[in-house]
Every structure is written in structure tokens, then in C-alpha cells.
Amino acid sequence: MSSDPPQVAIACQGGGSHTAFTAGVLARLLEDGALERDVDIVGFSGTSGGAVCASLAWYGREHPDHEPDELLADYWSEMAARGPVERVTNEAVRWGSRLERMGVPLPDVSPYRSPAALWGRREFLELLERHIDFDAMPDLLDGTNPALLVSAIDVLSGEFRLFREDELSPEAILASAAIPYVFRAVEINGAHYWDGLFSKNPPVKDFVTNRETPDPDEIWIVKINPQRRNRVPKSPDGIADRRNELSGNKSLNGEVSFIEHVNDWVEKGYLPEKFTHTEIERIRFRRPDLGWRTKLDRSPAFIEGLFADGEDAAEAFLADRHAAGDEDV
């Protein structure tokens, strides 16, 4: 039996403001580098808000002047609507959502004609650039870095696109987070991209099929959308919530199913030796009381609470993992 630490990839599902939970998970996992004494982190992936968290974690881990836990905490602290303009905007989004829920007709405004959409795009990009020095990225790439996979979808071709660590840019991350009714499609090298939620949420299968990256022993999925519900939703809100959850899980379930099939073929000896068994672990967001509309809520108390929930979930995950390891000894 190999004494080498298991190779682990961490995949971050998208979910708007709910991915402050993901930030808390990653901050705890990567705090003080303690985790990396037990595992070898070979990759991060993410979509939408998960792409932001994965990129910050990757950058904070690789840059000698930053720590990933501090970078994640600082980013989400700034993301919270603290200033007067941000608070007014956040409240307008929340009230608009409530009015829509009550059936009050609201005007549809294209993001191509909305000053608010342009302002949101600028704020998103500037916030990223305050926390990631994209000009320094080439100097961080020494061939030993973990993979970074950020998912978006090409609006015209309908094909998914993975941006890798050597292609990381503010626009690539925005492409993964560009909700069609909030942002204009993001143009990169002549192609136009929307939110990666339509393609891979998050990239998982690529850790196994991409031969440029190590085949991980384990993939830890930070999962935002619940898989199961106890009762059939009947209210308009409940139906919308469940539809959002099912849509967000569709691609993930397909990719996990693929890996499970590969595991089965490996165990039966159908595949070459370069294919290995990959264990799937999940760190779940456990707030069933929150509907999909709260994914747009950036109030400070809400963001801070989700971040703390993520830290607690990661702590419990690590405790369970250590306990299971002790039982195997």
C-alpha cells in the first residue's frame, strides 16, 4: 500500500451569494496549510460563485504573499453590501424579488440597455482585481501547481468551455458567473460566454478525463443545491426553488454518474492502469429554509452567517474524515 498522501481535487458548485458558504469551507480547509500535511491538493474547479471561490483559493495558495483563508474572507467581506450605494442596490433587488413573488408586474430590462448591469459588471471585475493580481499569474506557474478549472458556456455554439490556470483573467471568471438577465455575454477572443451553470456545475469529470492533470484519488464537492426534498412543492415559490435546485444539480449528477461508472469499470479490470478509482465526497450546504431568491442577497449579516456555516461544515467534514481514518488503523 502506498504511503503517499491521497491526491484530492476540490470542486465548487455555483449558487450566487450562497457560495459565501463555499468560501468558508475553503478557508477552513486551507487554513495554515494544515490540510496539506494529510492530502496532496491536485486541483480546484468551480462555476459561477464557485469559480470565484476556487480561483481565490488557488491564487491564495500559490502566491507567496497571500493566504487563501484571508483572501477568501476579505473578498466576501467586500462583496457584502456595506456602502450606501450597495445597500440601496441590495434592498432594491430584494424588494423587486418580493414584488415579483406577489405577482406585481415589473418591467423587463435587457442587460444591454441597463446602466445597473454595466455598473455591476465594473464592480465585479474591480473587486476581483483588488484581490487577484492577474499580471502576476504567469510567474506563479511553475509546473507543480494544482489544476484550476473554471466553467462557462459559449452562447452561440452551446459548447462548454474550461478556462485553465494559465488563462485566468477577470473576464474568464466573469464569464463563468455571467447570469444572462444580469450581465451581458462576456466576449473573450471573439467568443461570447454565459454562466457556467448551463454547462458544468462544477467541473468534476474533467479531473478524471483530462490527462494533463493528475487523476485524483478523491474529489471533494462543495455542494450548494440540495439533492432531495421531503415533499412535493406546491406554492409558486416552492416550485421555483425546486426547479432552480434541480437545474443546478443536473450537470453535476451526470458527471458524478460518469465517475461512478469509471470506478466500476476500473474494479472490473476493463480499463488501462492509468485509470484509477476516484472517491467522491460531499460537503453540503444545509440551509433548507433558504429559497433561490436569497442567492441574490448580499446583506453583511447574511454573507457572514453563510461564511461561518461553511467553516463549521468543513470542520465537521475533517473531524469525520479523521475519525474514519482512526477506525481504519
UniProtKB/TrEMBL annotation:
Ranges where the PNPLA domain occurs: 10-208
Origin: domain of life: Archaea
This protein's record includes keyword Nucleotidyltransferase: no
PROSITE patterns for the chain: PNPLA
Molecular function GO labels: hydrolase activity
GO biological process: lipid catabolic process
InterPro entries, sorted: Acyl_Trfase/lysoPLipase (IPR016035), NTE (IPR050301), PNPLA_dom (IPR002641)
Pfam families: Patatin
Keywords carried by this UniProt record: Hydrolase, Lipid degradation, Lipid metabolism
Lipid metabolism among keywords: yes
Name by which UniProt lists this protein: Alpha/beta hydrolase
Organism expressing this protein natively: Natronococcus pandeyae
